[in-house]
Amino acid sequence: MNEGREPIEQLGHLTHLLKGMLESESPEKKQAQQIIHSLNEELKGLTIHKRIQPYDQVKLSRHPKRPTGFELISSVFDHFTELHGDRCYSDDAAIVTGIARLGDIPVTVIAHQKGRNLEENLKCNFGMANPEGYRKAKRVMKQAERFGRPVISLIDTPGAYPGIGAEERGQALAIAENLYLMSRLQVPIIAVITGEGGSGGALGVGLADRLLMFENAIYSVISPEGCAAILWKDAKKADEAAVALKLTATDLLGMGIADQMIKEPTEGAHADPHQAARALQDALIETTLELLAIPLHRLLAERTTKYRKIGVM
Amino acid sequence: MFKLFPSCPACHSTHFIAFLKKDLYRCNRCGHLMRISARRRLGMLLDKGSFKPMAEPLVTTDPLVFPDYHDKLLEARKRTGLGDAIIAGTGRIAGMDLALAILDSHFIMASMGAYVGEAICQLIDLAIERRYPVVITICSGGARMQEGIISLMQMAKTAASIAQLQDHRLPYFAVLTDPTTGGVTASFAMLADVIIAEKGSLIGFAGPRVIAQTIGQDLPQGFQKAEFLLEHGMVDMVLDRHEIRAALENLLMLHKTRPYFHQRSPYERRS
Predict the structure, then answer these.
(1) A232, B60, B153, B264: which has the fewest Cβ within 10 Å?
(2) CA-based torsion, B108, B111, B116, B118: positive or negative
(3) Are A170 and A196 contacting, i.e. CB atoms less than 8 angstroms apart?
């Protein structure tokens, strides 16, 4: 999708040059006219990718065929052993947790799970976790700390579930406690936004030493539809809100919130899930090794500083 | 806007402003607690003249250059006389020192952007430096949408600051007032050692409208009210407005540190 960008920019530059030439006297003027003519001929046989808009990326991040948490886990890790339940109330299928090997490094994996069809989605609640999901994640992170396993969190959620039961059982507390724990967890944490990074629901398993984002993933404080509904009383203006919220991987890299972008196949991750998974695996191995080489006290100090300076001049 | 005879938003009865002030903005007909500014609440909590404000934090004000946000900020600053939705500093309750912050719902629904987040963190730094207990009186619509991802990240940094405060074994008491929702509830609000909820306040993660929309049915009576949270084990006590100062005084007194605290536990991990 990004291949279209460079030629368009070059074309803009060229047009600018040509305009300058046209304004001057011949023989440059004649040359310019010739170039324009030949360009027009070339353009006839050319299709240029339209520059992808933020809202298109929002749609790609939610694409029904986009690789799910389970699918990414099975192609990125070996020996994945799923661990169930928060030891308190239930097992939340919206967040999958377990132990696995990344190359030859044992890691703890946390992943949001969206379903492929209605039946699956009813089970995993469209990737919207209840407090039990966050508490299960907390349980496995504490284990990871005790056994010295890096934590890898694959995030893809519209947000934490807004339901009656979720409020009764302390959705806010569950997320807050995870932020507290992750801010000082004594192992490296890598978070990857693989699809939708929906606000507190994403951050609740997303405080990390490194934040990676797939090229068409988004991460935002509110959905563009929600933002448009509040600001302009019109959810249909979501495309404008998507621009204003600066929620794409490129935006987040620019603001220094994301650390690395993982390339996707041209049509999006769903077009070639294996290629996407391989790119993710490469990025994860490299980042994990890099973080494991940092002494613990420095890792923790850097994590604290990284978040503390966000928004500060 | 100043009104000589404001009416109660709950029962619509009319009150004379002078009596209302004396009653701490509590309706004497129905008991409803009206929303009040941070300055007014400050006066209700602290010993007179003891408040010393912190310096304003230096933060990026409009990181996304979000449509109309700049004007909205300027308008709110002019109207409230505040730098943002929070005042923070040190003061005393019954002669006992504390670090205090109060959020103000009249400033863009006390939503948390970089300013509020950094102010909370600086307050906690100050508390650690002086070994003061921390009291935060909270209300908020959540993270400030107009600051996008920067506002979301304030949840992470405030939670991390609370963790540091706990490392130093300093107590933190939160007073949750109407309304406390979203990213603020899901970060520093729920992490307090003792949580006091003001009577009748709306407290939750998702807003009631969003929940009703999601589940497609009406919400039960009293859902997400302070009393509901007490029943579900989410807060320690529900108090009327005039009881809060005394409760804080009592808590501060009960948390005075003893030398025992400074001994190292044999079970503490060294890493």
Answers:
(1) B264
(2) negative
(3) no
Within 8 A of B156 by CB-CB distance, chain A residues are 179, 182-183, 203, 207, 307, 310
Map residue B271 onto helix, strand or coil: coil
Residues A103 and A32 occupy one common structural domain: no
Burial class (CB in 10 A: 0-12, 13-18, 19+), B12: exposed
ipTM confidence = 0.93
The DSSP 8-state label assigned to residue A125 in this structure reads: G
pLDDT tens-digit map of A11-38: 666 767 777 777 666 667 777 777 777 7
Domains of chain B: 1-34 (no CATH), 35-255 (3.90.226.10)
Q: Which long-range contacts (CB under 8 A, 24 or more apart) does B219-226 make?
A: B219/A164, B220/A164, B223/A164, B223/A167, B224/A167, B225/B200, B225/B201, B226/B176, B226/B197, B226/B198, B226/B199, B226/B200, B226/B201
- From the list B163, B205, B219, the residue facing A160 with the nearest CB is B205
Let me know: does A143 contact A103? Beta carbons within 8 Å. no
B226 within 8 A of A175, measured Cβ to Cβ: no
- Residue A294: what are its φ and ψ, rounded to 5°? -90, 130
Report how many domains make up chain A: 2
Q: Is residue A291 one of the residues assigned to a domain?
A: yes
Whether residues A23 and A163 share a domain: the answer is no
Q: What was the pLDDT predicted at B1?
A: 63
Which residues, including other chains, have CB under 8 Å from residue B2's CB and lie 6 or more apart? Answer: none
Contact A183 B159 (CB under 8 A): yes
d(CA B192, CA B255): 14
Helical spans, DSSP H, in A24-170: 28-44, 54-61, 69-76, 118-124, 131-147, 164-168
Residues 6+ apart with CB under 8 A from A10: none
User: Which parts of chain B are beta strand (E)?
Assistant: 52-53, 86-93, 96-103, 134-140, 172-180, 194-198, 237-239
Taking the C-alpha atoms of residue A168 and residue A245, their distance in angstroms, rounded to an integer, is 31
Answer yes or no: is A196 within a domain.
Answer: yes
Q: Which residues pair with A152 in a beta bridge?
A: A109, A190
Structure token digits, residue B187 = 């970060």
Q: Are residues A190 and A257 in the same domain?
A: yes
The predicted-structure confidence for A64-121, as pLDDT tens digits, reads as follows 999 999 999 999 999 999 999 999 999 999 999 999 999 999 999 999 999 989 999 9
State which residue of chain A sits closest to B114, comparing Cα positions: A311
- Quick check: is A240 in a domain? yes
Nearest CA in chain A to B219: A164
Kindly report the pTM of this predicted structure.
0.89
Output the six-digit token pair for A26. Answer: 């011949």
Measured between beta carbons, which residues in chain B are less than 8 angstroms from residue A199?
143, 152, 183
